[in-house]
Amino acid sequence: MRLVSAATVVIVAVALGGLVLPQLSGEFAAHFVALLVLMPMLVAPRLFYRRHDLAIGRARGGRQAPPHAELVLLVGRGTACELFLRSLRNDPESPYWPVGILDDTPGTRGSCIHDIPILGGYQDSDAVRKELAARGTTLGRIILTEPLTHSATEELSPLLGWARMTGLAVSQLPPLSALRPVGGDHGLTDLNVTELLERQEAQVDYDAIRRLVEGHRILITGAGGSIGSELTRQIASLRPAELVLVENCELNSYQIEMDLERHYPQVPRRSYICCIRDDDRLREIFYRHRPELVFNAAALKHVPIVEQNPCEGVLTNVIGARNVADIALETGALAMIQISTDKAVNAYNVMGATKRVAEFYCQALDRRGGTRFMTVRFGNVLGSSGSLIPLFKRQIDEGGPLTVTDPRMTRFFMTIREAVELTLLASASGLEKAVAQGQIMVLDMGKPIPIVDIAQRMIRLAGLTPGVDIKIKTIGIRPGEKLFEELFDKAEARAPSVIQGVHVATPDGRPLPFLRDGIAALERAARRGQSHLVVATLAEIVPGYAPVGLHLATAPSPDEPKRPDPLLTAAKLETA
Fold this sequence. Notes:
Layout: H1 2-18, H2 28-49, H3 51-59, E1 70-75, H4 79-89, E2 96-102, E3 112-113, E4 116-120, H5 125-134, E5 141-144, H6 150-155, H7 157-166, E6 169-172, E7 189-190, H8 206-213, E8 217-221, H9 226-236, E9 242-247, H10 250-263, E10 269-273, H11 279-289, E11 293-296, H12 303-308, H13 310-330, E12 335-341, H14 350-366, E13 372-378, E14 380-382, H15 388-397, E15 402-404, E16 410-411, E17 413-415, H16 416-431, E18 440-443, E19 449-450, H17 451-461, E20 472-474, E21 493-495, E22 502-506, H18 512-527, H19 531-541, H20 570-575
Parallel strand pairs: 1-2, 1-5, 2-4, 5-6, 8-9, 8-11, 9-10, 11-12, 12-13, 13-18, 14-17, 15-20
Antiparallel strand pairs: 3-4, 6-7, 16-19, 18-22, 21-22
Helix pairs in contact: 1-2, 8-16, 9-16, 11-13, 13-14, 13-18, 14-18, 14-19, 18-19
């Protein structure tokens, strides 16, 4: 119809031009014949090429969304968007029905792609949402058809913030070169892990976080890990004076470096391949950059693996944390923030005990005054590498079963974004003296969620039925795991905080000389590979930690002493 209209306008314009310019004049019949020839020549090839699309369009019943379809708003109008819309036209049973497109190219408002109108630019996102609501259009999903730049993310923040607050799903189309398992989801990757939570995500004071970050030199260890990379991205968006990234894994370092280059190229930064166990290398980096804020996110975190490799767990989680803290103090940093875990509470496993020692050490240094040493403790984060959610996603893609260790097992959960935002907020408040010295900041994670409930919800989010389409299999508790995690140790005094979403715990702590002696004994035993001595020393340092049924990857060496009496001091343990 548009081609017919365009042909008519052209012929009429030529005919009217003949009244002004003699060279364009002609018989009326000639213009009429030209119109009759022009219209089929333009339209017929296109009708032939589009005949399949037109048939699909009739099969879909015009522009009326079927009852089962989810109304979606597309963001971006590149090649992926066009191909996605084409795939929807060719699928009469598609579960998605696009109602409009947001595009950042000027002057495209009002145009269409496959009959789907472009409603406005990214900066109009909030107005477009309100306009759709006024029409009675209830969105079921927002689909990002291409990765967002930093500026696009800022422009779309009202829309994405509203989606987060209301629980609206936000999905991302994968790159055109990505290979995915065969399925009916049109290649969508769901971003809305908050559907697995039973609460709204915490809202934070971004002004306080900006004051913490803006204009400061910041160093992050474990910068390529799940928590470290999110810390890096959020800090980079707040204009730090310099960002120093310390990462032991080359691949992780490469990935976060490429991410920053793409989204935050203006931020001065330097990446180092470095293990925090190496205090000489670490000291060189600190003295070269003199960071004002230090975030220690480097850790070995998998409970069963650390349980079988206690020497490695101690060298990273204890010795590495001690190195970072000592060098931060030595170079005059304003603050060091130690990332801890609920596994450190009433420690039951090696991983938890090592993180508890790191908590004690930072607390003891903080009580001395000068450089602030703040510890932020939280539980599991949804979607972190090697964690529960990626495992369940892979098992669902493979057709099941989903494996849970015990139907009674519960865990605290929060999103990576939420954990990092609250960590930054707690750090800012601690630096502004809102948190007393020696206190541990504990993030409010709501109520613990049964693991089996998470498994069932993920199966339902995939459009399947638990126990019918996908089975859930119990495999038994692994070495070092507890049925229930806690956020506060039984020996800690807890108190409310002036920070929304953050509580404070005040442990009795351990004397700094005792900790230094104990950590030195741990280091000597760990570097010699004396696993049993490492575990015994941890039991001496951490009150309440009594390892039972230890499973070690390697047998103790023939000259390794038997486990000493727990009543011996750390110094006596080393002597033994």
